[in-house]
Amino acid sequence: MELETPEYIKFFISKFRELAAKDPDLPRYYKPRPYRNAAVKFRHCALNAYEDRYRLAVEQAHLNVFKFPAHKLPGCDLLSDSGTTTMTMEQWSQMLLGDEAYGSNEGYYELNAQIAETFGEKWKDSELLIFHQGRACEHALFKVLRDTLRKGEVSVEAMRKNKSGYIIPSNGHFDTTEANIKDNEFQAPNLFCGEYYRNDPDLRFKGNIHIEKLERMLAGEEGGIPLIYFTITNNTGGGQPVSMDNIRAVHKLSCKYKAPFFFDAARFAENAWFIKRYEAGFQTRTIAEIVKEMFTYVDGFHISCKKDGLVNIGGALVIMKNSLFTDNYPHFLDRLMNHQLMTEAHPTYGGLAGRDLKGLVEGFKTVVRQEYLDYRIGQVHRFGRALLRNGIPILTPIGGSAVYIDIDKFFKDVPDADSRLKGISLTGLLLIAGHRLCELGIFAFGSMKDGVETPPEPRVNFVRAAVPRLVYEDQDLSAAAEAVTVLYDNRDRIPGVKVTHGQDLTLRHFKADFEFVD
Ligand SMILES: Cc1ncc(COP(=O)(O)O)c(C=O)c1O
Asked: Which domain holds residue 469?
């Protein structure tokens, strides 16, 4: 006989239920994490070794966060959410079962099946090419596309559209995507939507593309558009999500103008979480269903699996067979395969070990779980709200993977402050505090042209705190928020910096050196 729940217990169950149903956005409300630690790594550096970190930051890293030794950070390493994931026990156990055959190994077939499971049935009819990470996919895709166009290996329909120059527009190209596009002589404009420029927490889909501008570009005469690119979530635009409505609208234009449509899908599951939570009509759909709908609208995608693949290495380029893309470029897949054989290896493993593929299959299963995403994005938001409570200006609404500190606003009320390189000052001081963040602003996106420093257009001046997946507890992030607050409370005393090397280099933020100036 089934055990009856007595009234006096029912009372408490209803109270526990009320607690669990509380708005997760309340400042001091916590739910248990949906996982427990299965392994931990002790740090071997002391929090109070401030002078040591000052010396390392200045003498070894030259205030470039990419050159600072990560194992010397006692706090949060928020340089990137890419490849920094803690993998689950399920992933590690699958990795032990890795099949290390040369090409067409078991993991490849499992990954193929998982792609259809995660992204939808239609992808059963796609070509899956594995790469060691996202930018290798970008390099191959845009190089082979350029060669294809140069050789005129395009359908008559696509040929009519392509005139002198070629443009690959986006809602916001990631920096390596943009560099790969430009390196192959395409233009790479970012068509941020109108809402992007408004700091209003109620605008939920600031990652959207500007549809009218896109249509004007597609209908215009200035050049052909061989591909429309869409980054989900929009990392360059502040980690902001895109709406299903916007994706559908781009799909319509793609069909109308016969310009194939691709995703840069690095954070596809996080984007789906925002659609479910904030877009009308999606609240009763599961994340898995939303992801599948998103991917019905594209002809292909590339993905850095180091984000929503929940792995430390891996990338993939997935192209629908019999799609607008393969119709326009009938020889593309063969050319792409040649390129890959010469650079990454056979497309069925693309430079990865068989075990890496097994871990990735498992990662794609976990990443669409509602409780995982609730906790993951909730943690990023709790961190952002802690900064906001302390008065620190950040980009709102808070995105899915990172918090962006607005450097122009941070220094707005400091007399005579020139905020252009203050993002570098801030990240330099935070290294000393024991945390690593990254400037993504005037230095990272600006450039030196003919001896003249040119700010990015549109102007962006952020320091980004990217939160790795399943790595930190809220306590760690609170410590980082407090260190940022110390700087904010003393912002009039923050020194400037000067560039001592690399101001005129491409991708200069990875290579340059700086010095503090008082
Ligand atoms: C949106 C986006 N696209 C592409 C990439 C490049 O991927 P990877 O770092 O694996 O080369 C990144 C990396 O951070 C990214 O955020």
From this structure: 50-74+370-517
Residue 436 inside a domain? The answer is yes
- Summarised one tens digit per residue, pLDDT across range 300-319 is 999 999 999 999 999 999 99
Q: Is 340 exposed, middle or buried (0-12, 13-18, 19+ CB in 10 A)?
A: buried
Question: Best mutation site among 132, 174, 401 for ligand 1, i.e. most ligand atoms within 8 A of its Cβ?
Answer: 174
Number of domains in the chain: 2
Average pLDDT over residues 358-364: 98
- Average pLDDT of the residues in 23-39: 79
Q: How many angstroms is it from 457 CA to the middle of ligand 1?
A: 21
Ligand 1 binding pocket, CB closer than 6 Å: 82, 133-135, 174, 176-177, 231, 235, 264, 266, 304, 306, 315
Pocket perturbation via mutation, ligand 1, pick of 138, 142, 176 by most ligand atoms within 8 A of CB: 176
Q: What is the CATH number of the domain that holds 380?
A: 3.90.1150.10
Q: Cα of 269 to ligand 1 centre, how many Å?
A: 15
Q: How far apart are CA 307 and CA 258, in angstroms?
A: 31
What tokens were used for 386? 């802690």
Q: From start to end of 378-484, where are the E strands?
A: 402-406, 438-440, 447-449, 452-454, 462-466
Preceding omega of 397 cis (within 30 degrees of 0): yes
419 and 344 both lie in a single domain: no
Residue 486 DSSP one-character state: H
Residue 294 sits at the vertex; the CA angle it makes with 292 and 296, to the nearest 5 degrees, is: 70
Answer whether residue 95 shows pLDDT above 90. Answer: yes
Q: How far apart are the CA of 87 and the centre of ligand 1, in A?
A: 18
Dist CA 366 CA 362 (whole Å): 7
Measured over the CA atoms of residue 170, residue 470, residue 403 and residue 501, the dihedral's sign is negative
Check if the beta carbon of residue 487 is closer than 8 Å to that of residue 432.
no
Distance CA 280, CA 222 (A): 37
**Which residue has the least CA distance to atom 2 on ligand 1?**
174
Q: Can you tell me whether residue 64 is helix, strand or coil?
A: coil
**Phi and psi for 438 in degrees, rounded to 5?**
-140, 135
Ligand 1 atom nearest to 236, measured from its CA: 1
Residues 6+ apart with CB under 8 A from 515: 58, 62, 63, 497, 498, 500
For residues 408 and 269, membership in a common domain is answered with no
Q: What percent of the chain has pLDDT over 70?
A: 97
Nearest atom in ligand 1 to 231's CA: 1
